[in-house]
Amino acid sequence: MNNFVLLPIIIPFFFGMVLMFGQKSLRFQRGGAMFGLILAFISAVSLLFTVKNEGVQKITFGGWPEPFGITMVSDMVSALLVTTTLLLAIFIVWYSFSSIGTAREHFYYYPAIMMIITGVNGAFTTGDIFNMFVFFEVLLMASYVLIVLGGTRAQLAGSIKYILINVISSALFVIAIAYLYAIIGTLNMADISVKIAEINQPAIITVIAVLFLMVFGLKAAIFPLYFWLPTSYAAAPPPVLALFGALLTKVGVYAIMRTYTLFFIHDTAYTHELLLWLSVFTILAGCIGALAYFDVKQIIIYNIVIAVGVILFGVAQMNETGLQGAMFYLIHDMIIKAALFMLVGIIVYKTGTTNLRKMGGLMKSSPTLGWFYLIAAFGLAGIPPLSGFVGKLLIAKGGFEAGNTWSSLFVLATSLLVLLSVIRIFIYAFWGEEKPVQPILTNAETTKLFIPTAIVIIISIAYGVGAEYLTPFMSDAGRLLADPSIYVDAVLKGE
Amino acid sequence: MEIIMAFVIGFLFMAAVYLMLSRSLLRIIIGTGLLSHGAHLLILTMGGLGGSAPPVLADGVEDFADPLPQALILTAIVISFGVTAFFLVLAYRSYQELNTDDISEMKGGDEEDE
Amino acid sequence: MKTNDVIIQFTAKIVFFIIFFFAIHIFLAGHYTPGGGFVGGLLASSAIVLLVLAFDINTVRTIIPVTYTTLTACGLIIALATASFPMLLGDPFFTHYFDYFTLPLIGKTSLHTAMLFDTGVFLVVVGVTMTIIQTIGEDE
């Protein structure tokens, strides 16, 4: 029992509620949001070290014995993700100060951000499958608010699709849980893992596994369920887009990762093979999209799809190396996607368009931005020693160990396409003739935006260069994912 | 009883899919409502029907209903209530803004902005 | 067109109180029998909606001068505080405490911290429902 596990969830929630008062005072809104996030971040870091030193932490609500109460479990995987989430949220909120516009700031923008963080952290931490659904709904409700806030025409049309697709996937989630409950008779994730192992995963459980893959695949935007992503994300303003791109699809990826390493591990010849092929197609579809568009937002949005495919490819290997690589790559991708969306946001604010053909010559007016963009682009593609390298290396190594030589080579080869797709932005926007632009924000304002962006990029460089210091954490996470008994024992047998 | 429930749930899903495939936003929202009703009914059925006594601890009660599906349904109802309400407000707002409740005409809205 | 609303307005004034007290009854009954904060909150907000129908939004705003989003936030804070309070005593989150008390006039009653949580739920439901009704109803 350790109430500490809950702090990264409760603190943002509490501050979200407090920020619903005093919508008129900008200083209160901004200061409150920042203070709350920093407080939550500190608690998350100390939780991370507690988990590192003392093993998996858990708490069951109301003091019920497991598996009857709702258990919250903080293991290495969730502690790392929670910490990254809060870290990025701090910088995205900082970025919002001078970009989102005061009208939105006065209208529940910060409470919605805090609620989304609550939901994301809760979904990462929970050890109860229905509770995961509840936290998904919390973060989705907050994301609905964020995506329509402002209410421009494009936003309204994009958000209706977003909400509709999520309502359907939520209904499917409930249905999948109902089926699982009918067969297993429990909702505690550790207990589900034990019970499925006891009955040795009959075919009906495999059907449920695929249903879960559909549900989470809709949220994570895997092939062929990613079609909603580009239109609805493009509607959101840059800071919100950075938040969504960094966090929301990753929650779906985490859920697939969790269920496919904890529950459905007895028929890997079918389920993980399916996941493998879907991830390969996801990468392919993402590459096609990223290369086809001339819209900066769309290019990065399709790169989300590619990254989801790469992470799931690591999960599909189902060995320790692959899973460790998936963890490395997941956190890398959260950081680098936030950085790229923030950078692209600055480019859009500077030029007043998202169309690459209308940009050019930014290198003359803002060279620092150009070089930082180049570093971020190299980091995304995984050029050593930047942040994407270690994850992709481990994923490919895991793939070779599992005997999936050709598909692993394919994943490595697509890195070049990723590089090409983001370098196109560099070439079109930064090189060439300067073109007439209608800046949305002045230079002084975009400089303010650049500071948090640069810090996130520096964090991503540190993440790549300092991978050695992170390896103990990551190998713990990889071991935990590869061997479900660690998780199960910690939840059901621990003190 | 399970057979009847299966038909009812199937009918709800059928109606929901039919409504969600239409172009009017209001019909789509009613469709999502029906879809979540079907899902809730499915939880109830999947939890096992039967059990005559309420699930309250008392002496001599053997045959009691499973409380967990009921708790899950209550939670899911509250959530779908919230989402549907939000969706209705959004539909109303976009009807005001775009002057249509036709999904296919809304696509025109975001192309104009580009 | 001038409409004659005398009957509905007169009835609403009485029925409002009947529904509202029934809402409170349902809310308190939720302790051991069917009922609780959610249903009670919905009934209470339906009572307010009846007033909105009989009069209009601005009149109701002067009768009940509450900002409903603030009400929602208050409710959530009450619920969160009730749930977090056990953490200060070293018990898990959401632990509830109860005991029997003999109160004047009422007699032996059981008091339960879950009641406070339900009060939060009640306020949230009223707040959210009324916010939605207001958002749609406002711009006529």
Structural description of this entry:
The complex is a heterotrimer of chains A (495), B (114) and C (140). Chain A is mainly alpha-helical. Chain A has one domain (3-492). Chain A is 78% helix and 2% strand. Chain A has 21 helices and two strands. Chain A has a two-stranded antiparallel sheet with strand order 1-2. In chain A, α12 (268-292) runs antiparallel to α13 (296-317). Chain A starts with 6 loop residues before the first helix and ends with a helix. Chain B is mainly α and 114 residues long. Helix content of chain B is 74%, strand content 0%. Chain B contains four helices and no strands. Chain B has helices at residues 2-20, 25-46, 67-98, 103-113. In chain B, α1 (2-20) packs antiparallel against α2 and α2 runs antiparallel to α3. The longest helix of chain B is centred in the C-terminal third of the chain and has 32 residues, at 67-98. The radius of gyration of chain B is 20 Å and the shape is elongated. Residues 108-114 of chain B have low confidence and may be disordered. With 140 residues, chain C is mainly α. Chain C has one domain. Helices cover 69% and strands 9% of the residues of chain C. Chain C has five helices and two strands, in the order ααααββα. A two-stranded antiparallel sheet of chain C has the order 1-2. In chain C, α1 (6-29) packs antiparallel against α2 (37-54), α2 (37-54) runs parallel beside α5 and α4 runs antiparallel to α5 (113-138). The longest helix of chain C has 26 residues, at 113-138. The mean pLDDT of chain C is 85. The chains are: A mainly alpha (495), B mainly alpha (114), C mainly alpha (140). At the A-B interface, α6 and α7 of A face α2, α3 and α4 of B. Chain B: Its main location: membrane. Chain B: It is a multi-pass membrane protein. Chain B: It is found in: Cell membrane.
